[in-house]
Design brief:
Order of helices and strands: HEE
Largest sheet: 2 strands, antiparallel
Number of helices: 1
Helix content: 10-25%
Radius of gyration: 19 Å
Structural class: alpha+beta
Length: 75
Amino acid sequence: MKKGYVRISLQLIKDALKLPVEWEIWEMEFDYRNGNIVALISGNDFPECGEGKAKECTVLCHRESIRFEVEEITG
């Protein structure tokens, strides 16, 4: 197997996922057992946590764009 270390910037991850500009990624770690990455993200959309630990959340992605196409009616 071939492999290598690659540095991936947080900005690249934010851009690739199209995360809101105001969200800030604080840390990330792999969860190999479940095949996930667990990330600590802050932003106004997240629940208030006070001085305690951050709350577990899920992010739902909604596609809200519409593309219009015009076709000529013939005959």
